[in-house]
Amino acid sequence: MSIYMPEGRGNGGIRTLDGALRAMERGEIIEAQVTLCDRGYNLHATFGDGLYGIIPREESQFVEAGEGIKDIAILTRVGKRVAVKLLDVKFNGGIPFFTLSRRAAQAECMENYVSRLSAGDIIPARVTHLEGFGAFVDVGCGICSLLSIDAISVSRISHPSERLSVGECIYLVVKGRDERGRITVSTKELFGTWEENAALFSEGQTVRGRVRSIESYGIFVELKPNLAGLAEWREEVYAGDTAAVFIKAIIPEKMKVKLIIIDSQPSEPSAEAPCYFINPESVTHIDRWQYSPACAKKRIESVFV
């Protein structure tokens, strides 16, 4: 496991003053719990067994040359665990008081980990917040990347909250880098090919699905994040409904699943725990992923170069 884990999943092993002093001497990255932000936008934090420190404003975040630290980026750290390095310690009446740096932890993570990632690498991440266009994910020590909505699954969704929740730990595939050198990421490649998903179902079964969209020619029902079928049009069925569907036909060469809706009912949108077809604990890199079956006329694939 990388030492540069997303915040909230990192090193919480520091317990004693001696342990903190050793971590400071070795330049280790640890995690601290931010308790408040003062008027000067300095973050106060605790770690270990009653150990206390402060993250000065200028040490709260790593930014590229020419960029500034936004106040909101500091304020939103309150109540959360952050990755830090211990820069200094002073004793006041025998009580240790540490100067902490999140910026230094992120700079090291960027140099030794993020900058060395290659297209096709599978990495851990943590969801930090959701927007209509995608999810922001922490790929290490609070360094964020955007997981766009079209990279979350093959099956279309209207909002990332249908797949993900804030604080959730997930895995991603590195797609490449943008014009500024930031990594771009995807996760749909981990949810299986069309054949792998279709193999979980058989013609003649009646199974549960979620209605994704209503079209003039039929209704799309999602069976798995990377598998949806088309059902015949039916009245009083709405996007977001949970539906019982009869599997009429599975056609690999057309990548189609024909369905008949038996019944449907309203349901609250919810993010289900991810079910990966690739085990990220043992497979850490892929060069290519082909979603479409070999017999299909249409070819859908991701090539990582």
Explain this structure to me?
The protein is mostly beta strands. It has three domains: 17-112, Beta Barrel (OB fold (Dihydrolipoamide Acetyltransferase, E2P)), CATH 2.40.50; 117-191, OB fold (Dihydrolipoamide Acetyltransferase, E2P); 194-265, Beta Barrel (OB fold (Dihydrolipoamide Acetyltransferase, E2P)), CATH 2.40.50. 10% of the residues lie in helices and 40% in strands. The protein has helices spanning 17-26, 71-75, 102-112, 194-198; strands at residues 29-37, 43-47, 51-55, 81-92, 95-101, 122-131, 134-140, 143-148, 169-177, 183-186, 206-215, 218-224, 227-231, 242-251, 256-265, 288-290, 301-303. A five-stranded mixed beta barrel has the order 1-2-3-5-4. The longest helix is centred in the middle third of the chain and has 11 residues, at 102-112. The chain starts with 16 loop residues before the first helix and ends with a strand.
Spatial strand order of the main sheet: 1-2-3-5-4
Low-confidence sequence ranges: none
Q: What is the CATH topology classification name of the largest domain? A: OB fold (Dihydrolipoamide Acetyltransferase, E2P)
Give the name of the CATH architecture of the largest domain: Beta Barrel
Look at the structure and give the CATH class of the largest domain: Mainly Beta
> Secondary-structure element order, as H and E?
HEEEHEEHEEEEEHEEEEEEE
**How big is the Rg?**
23 Å
Beta-strand residue fraction: 35-45%
Q: Work out the helix count.
A: 4
Helix/strand class: mainly beta
Number of strands: 17
Main sheet properties: 5 strands, mixed, barrel
Mean pLDDT across the residues is 93
Number of domains: 3
